[in-house]
Amino acid sequence: MKSVDDFGMQGDKPSHPELLDYLAVDFQENGWDLKRLTRQIVLSQVYRQSSAEVAGYLAADPSAKLLWRKPPLRLEAETIRDSMLQVSGLLNGKMYGPQEPIKRGADGQWLEDESKGDPNRRSLYLTQSRTRPVAFLHAFDAPTMTADNQTQRFRSALPTQSLALLNGPFVRRVSQAFANQLWEQSKGDTADALHRAFLAAYSRPPSARELAIGQQAIATETDPKEGLRLFLQAILGANDFLYSY
Questions:
Q1: Domain segments of the chain: what residues?
Q2: pLDDT grade for 177, boundaries at 50, 70 and 90
């Protein structure tokens, strides 16, 4: 349904009402068991589909209304930030505690205040303010702190996101930590560092072409460690990292 917060007459009708009725009746008949309902959904063939395109299906149903594929979905702002911290080895997984402070950067945007708190905690613990949105999270459509509830997240594709990935202090800091970690683990072996980078960021080894591109990118810099950092920044900004397929 397009209208996720309006189930009345003014809302959109369900695209698959028979399926909705079946799940509702089955849920009731099995003791309102939420775990069973969740298991039933996530183990279904539709839920576990690939996002790969099939030419015939795409021509007949380009919007996937019939649920023949899983459309690629960009990760939420908080998930992107936390994932970057995780692969770089910076993430502090400490639970609970007070919110982490933010500050206004030299360019006027709001970011983590490392002088007063821990900038590597999960995004959940960053200070949230209606008038002071954290720039990186705001660029990737994090909900704003308004009086109205935001029942559905919007996923835009804007130039500000590319600029945040290219010039943002957070991404530069994370890519530097990632490079330091891989350089130490690989003992300066760039090929080994690239293999480790792809495994950490994409959960797969690099292809021969990707490995060659990485080696070439590193070789263009006088300092190979800086070349590695720049390539890692590109890895973190690629669709393979930002999207769920």
A1: 17-71, 92-166, 169-244
A2: very high
What integer pLDDT is reported at residue 1 of this predicted model? Answer: 53
Tokens of 86: 């995780």
- Mean pLDDT, range 86-108, rounded to an integer: 92
Global confidence as pTM: 0.84
pLDDT of amino acid 242: 95
Q: Which amino acid is present at 165? A: L
Which residues does residue 103 pair with via DSSP β-bridges, in sequence order?
111
The predicted structure's pLDDT at residue 151:
74
Q: Which of 210, 207, 209, 208 is nearest to 235 (CA)?
A: 210
Report the distance separating Cα 31 and Cα 131, nearest Å: 45
**What is the C-alpha to C-alpha distance for residues 24 and 45, in angstroms, rounded to an integer?**
19
Q: Is the pLDDT of residue 204 over 90?
A: yes
Q: Following DSSP, what letter does each residue of the chain receive, concatenated? A: ---TT--STTSPPPS-HHHHHHHHHHHHHTTT-HHHHHHHHHTSTTTT------HHHHHH-TT-TT--S---EEPPHHHHHHHHHHHTT--B---S-SPBPEEE-TTS-EEE-TTTS-TTB-GGGB---SSS-BHHHHHTTPPP--SS---S------HHHHHHHHH-HHHHHHHHHHHHHHHHHHTT-HHHHHHHHHHHHHSSPPPHHHHHHHHHHHHTSSSHHHHHHHHHHHHHTSHHHHEE-
- Residue type at 145 in one-letter notation: M
